[in-house]
Design goal:
There is one protein chain. This protein is an alpha/beta fold. Helix content is 42%, strand content 16%. Strands 5, 6, 7, 8, 9 and 10 form a 6-stranded mixed β-sheet that branches. Strands 2-1-3-4 form a 4-stranded parallel β-sheet, sandwiched between helices. Strand 3, helix 3 and strand 4 form a beta-alpha-beta unit.
Length: 257
């Protein structure tokens, strides 16, 4: 991500959080292709051509769009698609931040790639400042709140310590009761949750759209007090990019408020 690209630029983004970032960098008009899952900013993404999903992009159409760069995320997108685009001569800008501080560096890196360092830097600085604040308050609090972060139903699935959401919650003073789970996104049973008895059971709104009815279902299945459960905004806790400043604060609030 070290070389600046010529302007005007043609950008394809294959990751929803990176699409939002491009708009927040003020480069929305340079986007010539995004995925069908790119939903923010909602008032502007409708005008940009959709080139498939995050896992099944239309590589041929992307090539027809002649992008100067394609933005991908190592977790969201398939390596085979990135390799196919790169083999065809398209520049790929890849990312895979797992913490808020790594996200700050990612923002700076993309600022260089997209030629807008002056727009990326304030967001990166905001991420760093909020991260320092959250960590300082966690140290002052001197307490830990245990949590489980669920992302799927049928089967129930949680996340381990090597995930972005877990990192945000941990730096806010949380302790992931399934931190050692394998793989990173792993299946659990209701009995596992009952035995772990976390202080907070966070039911994420994506990729599975958990709702209040699922709190009742899981509370009944585990015998845990429904007051321990809450619906968590998956975009704040799993999208890395220009949404991360708000995500840092949101992680603290959902654990402690």
């Amino acid at each position: 991500m070290s070389a600046r690209l010529p302007k005007p630029m043609r950008i394809v983004s294959l990751c929803p959080s990176l699409t939002e970032m491009v708009f927040d960098f003020g480069l929305g008009d340079s986007l010539v292709g995004i995925t069908k899952y790119c939903v923010h900013p909602c008032e502007r993404v409708g005008a940009v051509e959709k080139v498939g999903g995050t896992k099944d992009p239309d590589v041929a159409r992307i090539l027809e769009l002649r992008p100067d760069v394609v933005l991908v995320n190592e977790e969201e997108n398939r390596k085979a698609d990135a390799d196919a685009l790169e083999a065809a001569g398209v520049r790929i800008a890849n990312s895979f931040p797992k913490t808020s501080l790594e996200t700050a560096q990612m923002l700076r890196d993309y600022g260089v790639v997209l030629g807008c360092e002056e727009r990326a830097e304030p967001i990166a600085l905001d991420v760093e400042a909020r991260t320092r604040g959250v960590i300082a308050r966690a140290e002052e609090r001197g307490a830990t709140r245990t949590f489980a972060y669920l992302i799927w139903r049928k089967p129930w699935m949680s996340v381990n310590a090597d995930t972005f959401a877990s990192a945000l919650l941990t730096q806010a003073g949380g302790r992931n009761v399934f931190a050692d789970g394998d793989p990173r996104y792993h299946t659990i049973e209701a009995g596992d949750l009952r035995a772990a008895a976390p202080d907070r059971v966070l039911l994420c709104t994506e990729p599975f759209p958990f709702k209040d009815e699922h709190i009742a279902e899981l509370a009944a299945a585990t015998g845990l007090d429904p007051e321990r459960f809450c619906i968590a905004d998956g975009e704040f806790l799993s999208w890395h990019g220009s949404r991360t400043p708000g995500g840092v604060d949101y992680a603290e609030a959902i654990l402690w408020d």
